[in-house]
C-alpha cells in the first residue's frame, strides 16, 4: 500500500483501506464526478498530494517552494483565481477533509482502544491524527472550524454584528496550524516527539487565538468609550473579555515557567503572552482615559497627548517583541532546525511585524512632530477674541476655552487643528491655507 497506517500489517484489507488516505480520494472522486468541470485540475492536485504523503518533510518544504513559484507564474499568466476559489467552496474541501479526519480518528480510536490500554491507545490516536499531509490538513480544517465557532461566540458575547469577515479567525488559525506543523517538521517525527511537538504548536496557536480575541475586543472598547455609550451590559461584557485576556496569559505563563525548562519555544511563548497582556493594558488605559473624558464637563486638551503616549509605549513594546522573536527564530534556524519554510516565515515576520511597524510608527511620529511645530507658530486667541467669537470649535463642537487662530481668523482647539493637519493644510471652515503668512 502506498500509504502508511498505524494498523498492524495483518489487519483485514477493508480495515486498512478504510483507515488510509484512500478515503479522501473516494470523497473527492464522488464530488468531482457529479460535476462536469475541473476534474482534471483536482485529479492533478490529488495525485500531487498523494505523492507528498510518502515524502519526508524536507521534500515537502522543497515542494512548497516549488508550489509558490508555480503560483507566482500562474498569477503572471493571469489565471483566474476566483475560479479556484469557487471550486474550493463548491467541492467543500474543508468539510470533506474535516469529515475524513474525524472519521479516521474515530476509526483508529476504536481499533486502538480494543487492542492497547487506554493511555497508550490515546497516544497512538493522537500521533496518528497528524500522520500524513492529508491528515494534517484535515486536522487544520477541524481546528479552523473550532476557532471559527469560538470567534462567533465571542462576537455574539460582545454584541458585535457577525460580518463577512467572521471566518477570518477560523481560516487564519487553520493555516497557521498547518504551516507551523510543516515548519517544525511534525510529519517526520516519531510518536513521542510528535506528541510533544503537537502540544507546543497547539500552545502557540492558543496565543494566536488570544491575539485575535484582543483584535475583537479592542474596537468595541474604543467605540464604547469614545461614543459615550451608556449601555452598561456592553461595557461590562467588553471589560470582562479584556480581563480574561489579562488573566489567562499571566496564569498560563507562571504555569509554563514552572513546568518547562528554558527553551526557544518557552521564550517565544513568553514574548507572545506578554505582548497580549501589554496590548490589553493599552486598550484598557485608553478606554479609561476616554471614559474619564466623558465625565469631565470641560474640554480636556491634553487627552490626545496621553493617548498618544500610551499608544506609542505599547507599539514600541510590540516592536521590541517583534525583534526578540526574530532573534529567537534566527537562533532556531542556525542552531536547532533550519528549513526553507521557517526561513520564509521569518522573512514575512521581519517584513510585516518589524519593518512595516517601524515605518508606520516613524511616520506617525514625524507627522505629529511637524503638526505640533506648525500649531506652535499660530497665535493663541485672547480672552477678548474668544468672547467675541462666542461659538464652539467647528471640529469637535465643544466649548472653546482656549484656541488657536488661523491666518483666516478662524478659531479652533489646538489639539483639534493638529489632528486636522495630519490630513490637510487648509482651514476646515473656509479652505484657505492655514499658514498663509509663513
Ligand atoms: Zn475642538
Ligand atoms: Zn478659515
UniProtKB/TrEMBL annotation:
The keyword Transport does not apply. It comes from the Eukaryota. Its main location: membrane. Pfam families: TRC8_N, zf-C3HC4_2. GO terms for molecular function: ubiquitin protein ligase activity; zinc ion binding. The chain crosses the membrane at residues 22-47, 133-154, 166-186, 198-217, 238-256, 276-296, 308-334. Residues 393-431 form the RING-type domain. It is a multi-pass membrane protein. It comes from Capitella teleta (Polychaete worm). Gene3D superfamilies: Zinc/RING finger domain, C3HC4 (zinc finger) (3.30.40.10). GO terms for biological process: ERAD pathway; proteasome-mediated ubiquitin-dependent protein catabolic process. This is RING-type domain-containing protein. InterPro entries: HRD1_E3_ubiq-ligases, TRC8_N_dom, Znf_RING, Znf_RING/FYVE/PHD. The lineage of its organism: Eukaryota, Metazoa, Spiralia, Lophotrochozoa, Annelida. It is found in: Membrane. Keywords: Membrane, Metal-binding, Transmembrane, Transmembrane helix, Zinc, Zinc-finger. GO terms for cellular component: Derlin-1 retrotranslocation complex.
Amino acid at each position: 500500500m502506498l500509504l502508511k497506517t498505524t494498523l498492524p500489517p495483518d489487519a483485514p484489507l477493508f480495515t486498512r483501506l478504510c483507515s488510509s488516505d484512500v478515503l479522501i480520494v473516494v470523497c473527492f472522486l464522488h464530488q468531482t464526478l457529479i460535476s462536469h468541470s475541473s476534474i482534471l485540475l483536482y485529479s492533478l492536485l490529488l495525485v500531487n498530494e498523494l505523492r507528498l504523503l510518502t515524502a519526508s518533510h524536507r521534500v515537502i518544504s522543497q515542494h512548497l517552494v516549488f508550489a509558490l513559484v508555480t503560483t507566482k507564474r500562474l498569477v503572471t499568466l493571469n489565471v483566474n483565481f476566483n475560479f479556484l476559489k469557487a471550486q474550493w467552496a463548491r467541492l467543500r474541501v474543508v468539510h470533506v477533509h474535516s469529515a475524513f479526519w474525524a472519521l479516521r480518528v474515530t476509526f483508529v480510536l476504536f481499533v486502538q482502544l480494543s487492542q492497547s490500554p487506554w493511555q497508550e491507545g490515546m497516544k497512538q490516536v493522537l500521533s496518528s491524527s497528524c500522520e500524513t499531509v492529508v491528515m494534517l490538513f484535515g486536522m487544520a480544517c477541524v481546528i479552523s472550524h473550532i476557532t471559527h465557532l469560538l470567534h462567533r461566540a465571542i462576537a455574539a458575547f460582545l454584541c458585535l454584528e457577525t460580518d463577512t469577515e467572521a471566518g477570518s479567525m477560523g481560516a487564519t488559525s487553520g493555516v497557521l496550524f498547518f504551516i507551523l506543523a510543516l515548519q517544525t517538521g511534525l510529519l517526520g517525527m516519531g510518536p513521542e516527539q510528535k506528541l510533544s511537538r503537537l502540544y507546543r504548536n497547539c500552545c502557540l496557536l492558543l496565543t494566536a487565538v488570544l491575539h485575535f480575541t484582543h483584535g475583537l475586543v479592542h474596537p468595541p472598547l474604543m467605540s464604547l468609550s469614545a461614543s459615550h455609550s451608556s449601555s452598561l451590559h456592553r461595557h461590562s461584557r467588553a471589560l470582562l473579555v479584556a480581563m480574561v485576556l489579562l488573566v489567562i496569559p499571566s496564569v498560563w505563563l507562571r504555569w509554563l515557567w514552572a513546568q518547562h525548562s528554558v527553551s526557544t519555544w518557552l521564550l517565544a511563548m513568553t514574548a507572545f503572552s506578554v505582548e497580549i497582556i501589554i496590548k490589553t493594558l493599552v486598550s484598557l488605559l485608553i478606554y479609561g482615559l476616554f471614559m474619564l473624558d466623558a465625565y469631565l464637563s470641560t474640554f480636556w486638551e491634553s487627552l490626545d497627548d496621553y493617548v498618544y503616549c500610551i499608544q506609542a509605549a505599547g507599539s514600541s513594546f510590540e516592536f521590541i517583541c517583534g525583534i526578540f522573536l526574530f532573534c529567537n527564530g534566527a537562533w532556531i534556524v542556525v542552531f536547532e532546525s533550519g528549513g526553507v519554510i521557517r526561513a520564509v516565515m521569518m522573512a514575512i515576520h521581519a517584513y510585516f511585524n518589524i519593518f512595516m511597524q517601524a515605518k508606520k510608527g516613524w511616520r506617525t511620529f514625524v507627522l505629529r512632530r511637524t503638526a505640533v511645530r506648525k500649531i506652535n507658530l499660530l497665535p493663541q486667541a485672547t480672552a477678548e477674541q474668544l468672547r467675541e467669537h462666542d461659538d464652539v470649535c467647528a471640529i469637535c463642537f465643544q466649548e472653546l476655552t482656549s484656541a488657536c487662530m488661523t491666518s483666516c481668523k478662524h478659531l479652533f482647539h489646538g489639539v483639534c487643528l493638529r489632528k486636522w493637519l495630519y490630513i490637510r493644510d487648509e482651514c476646515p471652515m473656509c479652505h484657505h491655507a492655514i499658514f498663509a503668512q509663513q
